[in-house]
Every structure is written in C-alpha cells, then in structure tokens.
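Hi U.,

Before I forget, here's the chain from the pilot set. I'm dumping it here mostly so it's searchable later in email.
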Amino acid sequence: MSAPPSLKPAATATAAVPAAPRAAVAPSAAALPGASARPVRRLRCAAAGPGDGASVEMATPLNWAERALEELCGLPDIDMFCLMALSPLDGRYLRMTKDLIPFFSEFGLIRYRVLVEVKWLLKLSQIPEITEVPQFSEEAQLFLDAIIQDFSINDAQEVKKIEKITNHDVKAVEYFLKQRCSSNPEIAKVLEFFHFGCTSEDINNLSHALALKEGVNTVMFPAMIDICKEICSLAKQNAAHSMLARTHGQPASPTTMGKEMANFAARLSDIGKSFSEVKILGKFAGAVGNYNAHVVAYPEVDWPKVAEEFVRSLGLQFNPYVTQIEPHDYISKLFNLFTQFNNVLTDFDRDMWAYISLGYFKQIAKAGEVGSSTMPHKINPIDFENSDGNLSTANGILSNISMKLPISRLQRDLTDSTVLRNLGVGLGHSLLAYKATMRGISKVQVNESRLAEDLEQTWEVLAEPIQTVMRRYGIPEPYEKLKELTRGQAVTKESMQQFINGLDVPEEVRSKLAKLTPHSYTGLAEDLAKDIEKWVDLESGFKIK
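Structure:
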C-alpha cells in the first residue's frame, strides 16, 4: 500500500515473530507511538467452529471492559477531566455511569471497529474461492486475536492520530491494522484484504450493534432487574400495611402500600419481557446493499450467504435488505422500550415522592448529608427527584434517536452518523436514574402510624361497600342515600354505624358491615401484593439474545 501524499510510512519495529518483508503499512504523521507490532499472546485454542477449513477459535478473553475502566481510572488527569467535562455524565456523574464507557465511548467504538475488521479478514481466509487469502496458521490467528483482546487506550489514541491525517475514522482503523500487522510475515501478504469490499457502514453498523447488545445486556439490564427486585421486596414487606388510596388526589377505597408497589413491579417486569423480542440486526452488503464490488471481484462466491454467516458469527441477526446503511429500525424498537420503562419508573418516582410528602414513608437521615442550605431540618426526597429529572432527559434523547434514525435520504445521508454517537448518552441518563431510584428506595421505611391516622379520618370510604351490599338486597336508591350521607360531609365512625344499624338487611349482613373499617376494607390487596413474584418474570425478560 502506498502512503498517501505527504504521509510517511511508519517504521516497523521488532516483534515476537520474524519481521516481515517490507510491506504495506499505515500512514503516519511521524512515527506514531506504540506503532510496533506486539508479541503474540499465547492463548488456549478451542476446537474449530463451523465454516470452511480448520479455523482456530480463540478462547474467551479476560474482561476487556473492566480492563478499559482500570486504564481510564488510572489516567493521571482524570479528576481534571471530570471537572472540565462538558457533559455531566462524564463529569459529576462519572462514577455512576462509567460502566457504559467501554461500550459507548469513542474508545469503545474504535475497539468494536477493530474487532469487525479483524474478524472479516479471518472470515475471508475461510472462503475457498478467495485463494489470495489462504487459511491462517494458528500463530497468525493468535496474533490477530491479540489485537482485539489487548486493545488499549493507547491503541485507540494511535488510531486517533492516524485519523488526524486521514480525516476519516474508519479508514484510520484500517491503516492502524495494516501498520500493526505489517511485522507478521503471514498477515503482511494480505494487508490489502483488510476492509475488503466494505463501505464504512458495514463496519460501523456492526460496531454499534455489538455495543448495544453487550452494553445493554451487561450494564443496563442488571440495573433494571435490581429495581424490579427491590420494588417486589417493598411489595411483600408492606403487603399488609393498609393505606388510604387517592384518585384525583382525593380519598378513595383503601389499598395496601404493598399492593401499590406490586403494581409497579408487574408493569416494569412486563416491559422487560418485550426486550427479548428485539433482534439486534447487522448488514454487510457493501456500498448500497447489493454486493456490487464483491461480485465483480469474486463472482463465484455466494456473497449474501457469506455476509449472513459473518454477521451471525458475531452474535447478531442478519438484515438482507438494506441500502448503504442498516435502517436502524431495531434501535427504534429497543429505545422505545427503554422510554416505556422509563415512563413507568417516572410514575413510580413521583408516587414515592408523594407518599413521602404525605408522611406515608419516612426517610432515613444520612449522617453529614445536607437537605437545604438554609433550612437545617430538611430531608428531601432528592434521589427520586434526581431520577425523575434524568429519566426526562433520557427519554428526550432516546425518543429523538428513535424518531430520527429510521429516516435517511435515498440510499444514505450522514445524519445518522452523529446521532448514533449519542446512543450511550440516552442510556447513561437512564442508568443514572436507575441508580438514583435504588438509593431512594434504600432510604425509606413505612410510617405505619401516619397510614393509620389518615384511614381513621376517612370513614366515608365505606360508602362504596355499603351501597354495593344495599344493591344486592334490593334497597332502593342505595347510591343516592350514601351520596347524601357522605359527599362533602364530615363522616365519623359513629355516623356510619348509625346508618348501618338502620339498614333493612339480614342481621348477619348488618353485623358484617358494622365490623368493617377503613383499615380492613382493602379487598384482596394483601394477597395480591404477596403473590407478586408469581407474576414478575425476571428470567425470560431483560435480555437480548
């Protein structure tokens, strides 16, 4: 490969394998740091997988995401970076959102691009018709695999230095790989088959798809499951705690605190089941989706079959009908589900805020924490408020992405590119909200005396069961009689008992009604709360296959 004008080829340094004959290398502004090939990392190889030839499948690496975070946290200027960050996700809230960084940062995107490019070269070596790329030896495969598994922040910085020259991010990855592999004599012979037949979006769409699948499964879903579990615990612990319900903000038929918590657990769990229906799709069909260049170069190859095998080998589903881009409809479906989950959680946050305001929940004071800069007594429900605010921000971003991505002029415009770089932003604000909700839950406990106090002051809520029983026994105008007794009137235990005593119903029915209190009039709320785990399915939901 000839270096573009004004660029010098990077020098080849000594590596653990014999130096290759002078071969094509990537362009460089000068000698880029870390440009030398790394020693081959010895890995245990599993049996060959499906496909042509005796390919070597690399063993599962150590947790690369954790290693990337360790590198980030070890940077000498990380505190200054957080202080000067434009986005609060990367500044004030970094400790809450850092788990998403390996997947949705610029580093993460570059690493996934490297992975796709390397895996594609390996796939080409397994196609018999492409004799120019013979089967790689085990050593060469290990060399390539090490580029993926050992990819570091320094490697990403090297790619960015190349990009300053190319002004093209995907091409910079291609040049990086040619540079890194030029010292391996076997791979050096086929350097021009990096990015073979590819448009940038073949690489990008698979990179974003992998980031979404791994980031959501690894970080987002566990946090969402934790919320469901905590709300289920609230439901069971408070199943028997009678509580005055409120419709339109006014006293309504009693429920239990546990039953109201169970409602949210069931709703959130139900949304979780829908995530498993989302298919993370990928395309690999060239410049406009028709394999144009592929067919000219190797007409004898079944390119749609090869593309499908390759996309599925990455753990993604294959989309055969595309333009230059994968149309992103699956991202819309995925983010719509996150938006729906966030809407329900917003409802939960606001109800918890209201229950705290009513005194139904007491907040546990945290030593050293300040509630107000001027009112020393304050313990504010800041965690639920923080969650509410971040869910609103998240849904604004997620909804915009969901509406924008499926729209692209003709065979492709560039509007999706900048939008796709914000996938982690919407998820980051969601994650921040989920953790805030969890903190809020951990700080509350039911105030039983306050629950009892409100119930004791609202005997009018028994109007509903009494008029319903009156209907059964044929007493005329039961609703109207109870309306006259209770609507806008001060109702006491005594006045309600007096009304019941005057009813023309069997004595045993009158006795049963007389024993009814606002505390006991909760229907099956306690049983429904206790049974919540029968309806909450966290095993089949909250996962993308």
